[in-house]
Amino acid sequence: MLRPIVKLGDKGLQTPALPVTDFDESLHTLIDDMIQTMYAAPGIGLAAPQVGVPLRVCVIDLSIGKRDGEVITLVNPEFVERSGLILEEEGCLSLPGFQATVARPHHAVVKGQDRDGREVVVEGEGLLARALQHELDHLEGRLFLDRLRSLQRDAIVKKIRKMRRSGRW
Ligand code: NI
Fold first, then answer.
1. How far is the CA of 138 from the centre of ligand 1 (A)?
2. Global pTM?
3. Confidence tier at 162 by pLDDT (50, 70, 90)
4. Hey, which CATH number is domain 11-83+106-144, 3.40.190.290, 3.10.20.30, 3.90.45.10, 3.40.50.2300?
């Protein structure tokens, strides 16, 4: 089932998410819905707070469903390692229409659990490293905006406020 994606202005996007303790049917439904919603958007990553669920769950698929077996599901993920630094343009499904250049480590290793609670380790470079960091940021209540210089951040926030006033956000 598709779930609506919340946008900047929703408090849940700026609140740290809670650890998952029950690997039950409702978690599986959430994960399946998140994958479907990510593909429909379309996007390469989605975190549970973006669909209004305050849990530490995210999904990533750089192929957006075009290649089998590429979807990564991470429950309770945390960084094991990060290194390097690279500047790339980045966007977010909760900030539709906005992109900015964000500095991120080039390489990241994340440890977490799969949908059944088994330990998984994901290692990524380039775009995958970026997606991992972007989604883990969501679980801390952080958006890519929070990684920009304040001048740049304020300019985007101001535009969104204006859009909201005129009912376009
Ligand atoms: Ni995002």
1. 7
2. 0.97
3. very high
4. 3.90.45.10
